[in-house]
Design brief:
This protein has 19 residues and is mostly helical. The protein is 68% helix and 0% strand. The protein contains one helix and no strands. It is elongated, with a radius of gyration of 8 Å. 0% of the residues are buried.
Length: 19
């Protein structure tokens, strides 16, 4: 996973959209 993807996942987690 690229650093960019990690940032996207982190932001999704903050918004509660990651399951």
């Amino acid at each position: 996973m690229s650093e960019y993807d990690k940032v996207k996942v982190k932001k999704l987690c903050l918004k509660g959209e990651k399951t």
